[in-house]
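Please, structure for the following, as tokens.
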Amino acid sequence: MPLYLGEIYLNAANPDVLRVAREFSRDIRDGKLPPGAKLVSGPWVSNEEAKLILVIDIADHSTTLGYFWPALASGAVSRRRLTPIADARALDDLPGKRG
């Protein structure tokens, strides 16, 4: 299961665009995600930046462009960052461990 920390940066400067951003957030909460994607945890909203944070299982992130493009084109989302993540216990299997 390839997990990603997703950060979706929202454009909160314009009230009309913020409305679209809220709808986008609601869609994520309601499980309306691209094919092959599953919400694992979240979404949360940052207390310091206009962004949503979520953990998502995406089999192939290249297939999600069509899902995010309308939000990008509308200006509701300014950018998205996906960071591959793994359980910290994976460090136990790395060579050169202490002990």
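The radius of gyration is 16 Å. The CA atoms of residues 36 and 59 lie 6 Å apart.
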